[in-house]
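Bug #77: duplicate submission created two jobs. Keeping one. Sequence:
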Amino acid sequence: MANQIRLTKWLAALLLAVFVFGGVSGCTETPRAKVQGIQGLTMGTSFSMKWVSVSDTEVEAIRKEAGRLLSDINQKMSTYIEDSELSRLNRTPAAEPFVVSAELMQVLAEAQRISRLTDGAFDVTVGPLVNAWGFGPEGRITHAPADTHIDALKARVGYGFVQLDEPSHQVIREGDQYIDLSAIAKGYGVDALAELLEARGIENYLVEIGGELRAKGHKPDEAPWKLAIETPRAGERAVQEIISITSGAVATSGDYRNYFEENGVRFSHTIDPRTARPIRHRLASVTVIRPTCAEADALATALMVMGEEEGYNFAIEHEVDAFFLVKSGDGFETRHTPGFSQYMND
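Kept job's structure:
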C-alpha cells in the first residue's frame, strides 16, 4: 500500500510538471529568428550591421571582426591618415612604382573602370580640386579660389595619369596626381562587411556606412528590407520615397548637405573633374542600385556630376537602376529609370 501511495504521488507530480511547463522536451517551442545588430563609427561617419539569426552568440565576434576590418580599410584608403597606404602612394615621386595591397589595388582598378565608363565624370585624381574648394582634409574655405589656381590644378587631374599593373600590384602616377577615394571607399567598406556576414553563412542582412547600403534576403517576417530615400532639402530630414530590396547595394549622392556660400552663390562639394568646378545644374540627388556598393557609390557620384539629362541618358544606355530628384521651383521633380520601378512601393 505504501508503495502504491508513493507511485500515485510521483504520477501526480509528473502531471503537474507537464501542465505547468507545457510538456516534455519534445514539445518545446522552436527558437524564433530575430534581427541582431551592431553599430559604430568609421571613415568619419557611422556604420551599422543588421542580420537575421535565431541566436545572439555571434554578435560580439562579428563586432570585433567588423572593427578590425574597417580599421584596416581606413588605414589603407584614407587621405586623412598621414601614414595610410594611400597617403604614402600620394607622396611617391612621379613615375616611381609603388606596390599596394590587394585591397587597395581592387578599389583603384574599379575606380579606373568606372572612370573609363563615364568618360571622366568619375575620377579619383580630383583630389587637388576637392581640397582647393574646401572639401578635403586641408579644411574648409569661405572664398572661392581664383580661376588661375583652379586651372593650374586641373592640369594635374586625369585618371589617365595613373597606371595600374594589377598582376604586380604596382601603381605609377605619371605626375603629381593626388588620389582621393572618398567616393568609392565607403562603398567598398559596405561590400566588405557584407562579405564578412556571408562568410559566416548569414544570408539575410542589411549593412550600411554613412548612408551607403547593401542588403540581401528578408527580415524575420519574410518582408523585404525597406529603405528611405531622403528629400534633398538642407536643414530638414524628410522621406521622399520608400524602396524595398532583397538583393543589391544602394548609394545616394547629393549636393544639399555639404557646401559653402559666397555672395549668394552656393558651391557644392561635388566637383566636376571635367570643368574643375562645383556642379551648377538642377540635379539635387541621385540614388543608384547595383550589385556591389563600390560600383553604386562611384556611379552615384558620376551621375550627380553629369546632371539631370546627361546622367539620366547614361543610366538608360548602361541599364543602371537610378532615381533622380531634380530641383523645380520650391520643390522637386522625380524621375527614375525603368529598372528602378521594381524597388518602388505602390
